[in-house]
Write a structure and sequence with these properties.
- This protein has a single domain, classed as 2-Layer Sandwich (Beta-Lactamase).
- A 7-stranded antiparallel β-sheet has the order 1-2-5-6-7-3-4, sandwiched between helices.
- By secondary structure, it is α+β, with helices and mostly antiparallel strands.
Length: about 180
């Protein structure tokens, strides 16, 4: 397990409650071994099938993603330069996320969300990692109440390029599980 972005025991507001959050990054093999990563791994396989070292954002469409994954998908625009501190703005925040978080985040900066929510703070660190490495990242976030995992997300984040070949967006999906 890559523990560059591991969190444990921090509070996060979600659904009007404060939950403990446990987050860990996983290798592709670790993600594939977990049933909760079927959709993220499927989207990763589609992304890998696209041309180029870093596929172009124009290759991503609802038809490409598929109706099964679309509600759980997100797209982040990169704000700032790649060689400096960057931020990310949600271009698309799938309906499954809006339903789970109880709010729409399209247009919101990830850094703003990270200052209010530890699961978003973890997502921000993973997004920065993907920008640094230019490689896909898988991570699991568990929401805990009274020492019991009550819901989790299984997530993949992948880079997309623009016409110049520069990474201009990140995208992926988070499959929600309720226990």
């Amino acid at each position: 397990m890559n523990d560059a972005t591991s969190f444990d025991g921090v509070s996060s507001p979600l659904d009007g409650h404060a939950y403990a959050v446990r987050m860990q990054t996983l290798s592709l093999e670790e993600a594939r071994a977990r049933p909760s990563f079927v959709k993220p791994a499927s989207l990763f396989d589609k992304w890998q099938s696209l041309p180029g070292n870093i596929p172009h954002h124009k290759n991503i469409s609802p038809a490409f993603v598929g109706v099964q994954i679309l509600p759980e998908m997100y797209i982040l625009d990169i704000i700032g330069q790649q060689d400096t501190d960057v931020d990310f703005r949600w271009r698309l925040f799938g309906t499954a996320h809006s339903d789970r978080y109880g709010k729409e985040a399209t247009g919101v900066l990830l850094s703003e969300a990270a200052s209010q929510d530890q699961s978003a703070a973890g997502s921000y660190k993973v997004a920065q990692q993907v920008m640094r490495t230019l490689e896909a990242a898988f991570f699991l976030t568990e929401f805990i109440e009274n020492d019991v995992v009550i819901k989790s997300t299984s997530t993949v984040v992948m880079p997309l390029s623009d016409d110049t070949g520069k990474v201009s967006r990140l995208f992926g999906c988070s499959a929600w599980s309720r226990f």
